[in-house]
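The freezer alarm interrupted the setup, so I double-checked each line after restarting. Inputs confirmed:
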Amino acid sequence: MPKLLTTEQMAEFANSGCLFFDELIDEQTNKEFLDDIGHTEIKNVDSVQKYYQNIKATSSIPRIPAGIPLKDAYPANSPLEKIFNNEVVDGAIRSLVGSSAVIDHQFLHITFPTKYFKEANQRQMSQQNHQDSTIDPRSTFDIQLFYFPTEVTKEMGGTRYHPGTHLRIVNEFGIAKYQNIKGQKSVVCKPGTIGIFHNGLWHGAGVNTSSDNIRYMFKVRLQPTEKQELLWDPEKKYKPLPNRALYWTDESKDKTINDILMKSYPWQEADTNRLDKINVVKFWRLLTGNKNLDIDYWLTRVENELY
Amino acid sequence: MAKRQKVLVLYLNMPSLEGEVISWATFDGTGKKLHMTGDSDEPPYPTGLDALLDGWKLFQASQAIPEHPGQEFRTSYLKHEFFFEKIEEGDF
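Predicted 3D structure, all chains:
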């Protein structure tokens, strides 16, 4: 049975644009995946191109034409089929993009350690920040599922990402000049960790400064074929919370869904931060199907047009 | 002696140099240090004014462009961009 996301997890995704499930995939499946792609030690790697050629020639990762349903994509009993059949992965996908999602594309990202670049006499650089895959002003959103089959240490340069950037409409590498952004995070994880990103989340690959660890990240982009409305709530019972006092408030330690949704980030400007909140409320309206919902009066205030 | 330019780009949380640094990038034309994406988690200065006080010379700042009618709530790139430089002399 798929384990659907909770309302708290959906609110976290709506606000931050990402969710992580640590050590979700079991050790045996991680090993099967690594064996299947022919994972080896860096000393056995001649070139990036040859390494990819070998994986493409021998692994069970299929060629998937864009637009193929996820349920038909991976061979029976292959490591990737097992990963997508995991009840948490299955439930998260259904909660975000529905039960009939199609595959946009997949890719196995490999980041080689410093030793490789030294021997190849190449400059080793991190990947610049970007948003996949082109300017995208839709209300519908895709998700990108990231699978990390090995441990990723800080030195291995795990995927860098910027929580809360997913609703900013930019054009792919148009954000590459932002070398560092306050509050930036990098994936550091145990084997079998799964990350799910909103397609708009700003991110980039880190630089692998470990002595000899190859870093892998298998990515699949999924597109919905149905409205993404209350897909996570099997009882369709979500109701918005009543208005609360603003600024002149009583001390309260009770955290609500609205606190998750209205979380700020250190990279947000003093002015645009308020628009970021408005856009999260608009996103939450779409996800809940409640077109009049508001949080902290952000939209009620500017929608009170009497002329 | 040759001259080389070092460029510091600061993104502030408001369109005043007193604003806090929320994003930053450094490009070193002297070749002494190779900066790259994700290489530091802490900004080089707390505010734009602190960069001036340390000798950086401002040479470009972003304009205030009114939002397009109908697009007032659309968010995009970081808004408050300031380019600074330092010129270094040496044998490069």
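Quick read of the result. Residues 156 and 196 of chain A are 20 Å apart (CA to CA).
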